[in-house]
Amino acid sequence: xxxxxxxxxxxxxxxxxxxxxxxxxxxxxxxxxxxxxxxxxxxxxxxxxxxxxxxxxxxxxxxxxxxxxxxxxxxxxxxx
Length: 80
Fold this sequence. Notes:
By secondary structure, the chain is mostly helical. It has 2 domains: 1-35, no CATH class; 43-79, no CATH class. The protein has helices at 20-31, 43-54, 60-70.
């Protein structure tokens, strides 16, 4: 099954009109083959965040500006 064969319908009155079990069934093939060879380390995300911050690639203000546009209902791609 490819991603294009999954149909999830959205309605403004309800978040999704599909039943939860129908959505889960549609996505199940993508999760059956996920194998972890070792436990995940939640600190890796914080380590990566620290590395990015240490290189001063962008600051908190830029992240906030991006998030404000990205999560805005009226957000525009060209503003990102």
